Amino acid sequence: MSAPTQTFDLVIAANRLPVDRVVGPDGDVSWRTSPGGLVTAMESVMRSREGAWVGWAGESGDAPEPFVQSDMYLRPVAMSEEDVAHYYEGCSNGTLWPIYHDVIVPATFHRFWFTAYERVNRRFAEAICEVAAEGATVWVHDYQLQLVPAMVRELRPDVRIGWFNHIPFPPVELFAQLPWRRALLEGLLGADYLGFQRVADAQNFVRACRQLLGLPTKGDTISVSRGANARRVRASAVPISIDFVGLQELARMPETQARAKEIRESLGNPDTLLLGIDRLDYTKGIGHRIKAYGELLEEGKVAPPREIFVQVATPSRERVAAYRDLRQEIEGEVGRLNGDHSVIGSAAVQYLHHAYPRDEMAALYLAADVLLVTPLRDGMNLVAKEYVTCRHDEGGALVLSEFTGAFHELHQAFVCNPHDIEGLKQTIMRAIETPDKDKRRLMRAMRRRVADHDVQRWAHRFLENLSHAPERPGTSKAQHEDRP
Ligand code: G6P
Q1: Model-level pTM?
Q2: 317 Cβ closer than 6 Å to some ligand 1 atom
Q3: Ligand 1 pocket member 284 (CB < 6 A)
């Protein structure tokens, strides 16, 4: 008889587990905690309670046995080749991702993709219920798992369920295109509390419930059913952040500073080093950025070796057609610009199609005079917050698209509309030319904001909102206060 499964007071569920598989020289497999802010935030909330994390280990086939890593119990969920193709690449990233990001590329609808989405969401819900203790708090993350809240509620009415959306929630006119719009809304309404990046995202959700499900809403609260089973669900904004203290510490290390200096030297110590760091995704506006920079090169406003632009493009979702097309387009453009504008010993654009470890990223941020963050749509954009965090010297300048969640917090950035190429060019030039003392003032204010609103605070706020979520039938708790 197998040993009874351990149960936990806090269960996190996200599509991915926070670990990377490492194969040693003798073929032995081990796991390394991935260095994301989400893990740091969860570690901070799990210090006070026993926690488990349910997620996919990143490869198709049988799931590894549950294991403990960084004091967290990890419960892998299996995914077959077909699940990866239909649930992950298909429904999550070929249907939902484009609809939730303003249809920058067309969305594809396949009924068999949604069937796989339901199947995998159910598998997650069952795994969650297996490890959740009586009365546990269950925190579900992101667009890949929108059916999970209702599935968990049905299996386990005793647990409290929250969901956080890391990406935007679309306006009802776009959301309404989804053939499965009703199932998705009903799935989410299984939660007690729903967190979003921006106020507008939460409002879009509430409006969708009102218009597409005909549910009564009042402010940020939706009434799900009437009579004895009446339940209210609250949807509000709790913008995510990063581990300010941990990342700043890394940026302050002498090794990181020495590496930043070395990076600048290896690029010929330019007057201005411009940097872009993005997942290679069509939402990031990399093409618009390169177009604007190309015109500045054309006009002689920037030129290597005086100005150098480094673009790091982290490989992503490479089996999805739109991502393959994007890579081809970007690499073609970079090649053309370099052919036209590079000089011997100095490329106009240094393009790096790699993922870098955290310490190298921190060094790049420290080395860069201007960071270009130009998404066409982005739930938050943590790269912007990481840059600000690393600049303990108060140097650097941030060019930031108004279509990011970060724009709503980092008011002192050089703000741009990436669709307006002329405006983007002017903003880039302003970021280069503004006197250092003025830029330091702007950077100082942005750093204060991120220091005060770090990822630990975000996680605590989310969990507090969840614990104060409107009472359930049969409970006598007074009506919740409104927590911003
Ligand atoms: C976004 C999503 C995450 C996702 C990440 C990387 O940030 O909000 O849920 O994990 O992109 O994408 P991937 O498809 O590689 O997990």
Answers
A1: 0.95
A2: yes
A3: no
